Amino acid sequence: MPKNSLALKPPSTSRSRSTPSISVASVGQQGLSTPSPVPQPKSPRTLRLSLIPTSVDNNQLRKFLGGLEYESQPPKENILALSLAPFVDWLVATVSFSQEPLIFLRCTTGRSLSLPLPPELGGSTINVDCDFYGITPLYHPPSKPTYDVIAVSGLSSHAFGSWKSPQNSHVMWLRDILQLDFPDFRVLTWGYESDLRDGTNDSTIADFSRQLLTAVHTARDDDSEGKTRPVVFVGHDLGGLIIKHALVEAAQGSSEDDQAIMRCCVGIFLFGVPNRGLNNGYLLSLVKGRKNEALVQNLMESSALLNNLHIAFQRSYKSSLKYCFVASFFETRDTNTVELPDGSWSRSGEPIRVVTRESATGFAPEEEAHNQIAIVADHSKLVQFKGRDDANYLHVRAKLKEMVRRTPKILQMRTGDGI
Q: Where is the composition biased (Polar residues) (predicted)?
């Protein structure tokens, strides 16, 4: 089975919390037809297909997608990337096309698509979306996974798009590259609604962290070994703070699921996480008077909430996460700020250092200096790697390998004899 955090996605229609769904009831001889033409995206995008029957394999899905109706004859290698991984009681696919099927063009931000499968693939209805909220499994090893890697993107980000290559929009290192170096890792992303243009959303860091914990419990309840499998969290920007809050909450929780997370967490990889706040004055002016203003205020460099969270995490680490491997990556380039030159959100403002080295490090007590790594990139591109030979990816790869080497000892020292 094998967009950027604080780099806001291109302007799109605002979305509500409920996601409208387009239902397509019939399949013609040439596939699903669409009543009106919709322009192809300027660059390949990735869509998520959920509720696929477990009997469907990669080749069958590829054939089905190739048989849908297209605007014109698609290229021979039209499917640029396709993953298929189990989740709960079904399969989830991610797919990128050179030329999208006509019906998929109707799937937009905030609007999903219900797509019937033919009888030979089970005849059920799958869901297609491009928002990627909740858990998305990106890769599952052919045999039993030995680690769960769960990635959380940043403020006003996209759970898939934030991690894509800056050169090839269909290449995403968590899905396509990590498996080459760590074939026994199960890799998942978790997405949440934090688009700053949606001024009706008053969700807090605590709200997001509870959603994340629930999603992680669901994802790890998939088999008898799920709750004892070592887990690694990867966080960018606000995503790291959500992970931090979730671990504090789990440490204070009494449920076996929460305690299992604390016992099994062997690694935390952080990219530009504003432990002591971020330089967000420009964002405050954009959300002033809106429901999400409080969220942005709590990310300021003088934030009492972040200071209290940091103190609580230090305490939780010492009591429940001792010996966990922590690597903190920080930006060395400034990032263009967001402004409204013509009424639309545009990253064309004055460049600033969004998260300083001092704020992005010191996540855990006694954090080792050699695990505080500079990435030659701005805040958005911290987690965007061009390929397997990308120098920045190789830094991450080296730290993951170090974590793997340390894992047996981490578990042994934490529990006395391992999990």
A: 22-35
Cα–Cα distances in angstroms (integers) from residue 101 to residues 83, 106, 171, in the given order: 17, 10, 20
Cα-based angle 68, 73, 76 (whole degrees, multiple of 5): 90
Contacting residues for 297 by C-beta, under 8 A, at least 6 apart: 284, 303
- In degrees and rounded to multiples of 5, residue 135 shows phi and psi of -80, 135
Question: What are the 10-residue block averages of pLDDT along the chain, 419 residues in total?
Answer: 39 42 45 60 93 98 95 92 96 96 93 95 96 98 96 96 91 97 98 91 96 96 83 98 98 92 97 95 87 94 95 95 96 86 68 95 89 96 96 98 97 73
Residues 6 or more apart whose CB falls under 8 angstroms from that of 218 comprise: 88, 135
Residue with tokens 């009681």: 89
In this structure, what token pair is assigned to residue 367?
A: 């954090």
